[in-house]
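Methods — Computational structure assignment.
A single polypeptide chain was analysed. Its primary sequence is given first, followed by the predicted tertiary structure written as structure tokens.
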Amino acid sequence: MQKYYTLITGGSAGIGRSLAFECARRKMNLLLVALPGPELTSTAEEIASATGVDVRPFGIDLTKPDSPRDVYDWCRSEGYMVNFLINNAGIAGAEAFEDSDPGYIDVRIQLNIRALVLMTKYFIPLLKECPSGKILNLGSISGYFAIPYKSVYSASKAFVISFSKSLSMELKDTSIQVSVVCPNGVESNTTSSARISTHGFKGDLVKISSDRLAKITLDKVEKGRKVILLLFIDRLLLIINRILPQSLTGRILMKEFKNELKYR
């Protein structure tokens, strides 16, 4: 019987780690792709020990030009059949665009957009070799808004949402399901929690733990949902955004996200 794997980028920490544990609880074998280092190795060993699934780590920097292809070649050379691709790797941050270093901009474009697109491109043929395949992309509620001080990040997530929807239509007659999850504030590490805290009670209304995100997301993927919003407040915010004048929304967002500049 063919052995299948779920491949998770950025799988050693934060949201990726939570998704990895939740997948393992559902008896999915795992390929964890993340930056090389002890965190990746220890996460793989911890998941395997706790759940009994097969976990294989692969350390690589996905911002490098050849890395997505290298991940694909690794899977092919090792004979890993991937039936679920989770493009989780990404990087946030807050920075006034005019003051931002080109490297700050470039890493967000390379990781949030280019790596995700090329991973998807390379793995679609492999996913088609499975009876059913799934792609889950990590978007963000910020992809629906123009957010000052997070201009590159929010734009990159707008790309992910649009790309996922378009690809889902292209692949509708295949065995591959494409989903995108759009979380709001996620408590995935100390920095993200600190950013959320700058919004006071409003941050408390929209935040979600990475473990809860993982469970809700995978439940909805299993139900075939293409665009996943995690909380009622997220859906409400999108409705409000359509109703309010853009000038008013912009002033509100400017005030809110200027607070995050201390956590770059």
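Note: The first strand starts at residue 4 and ends at 9.
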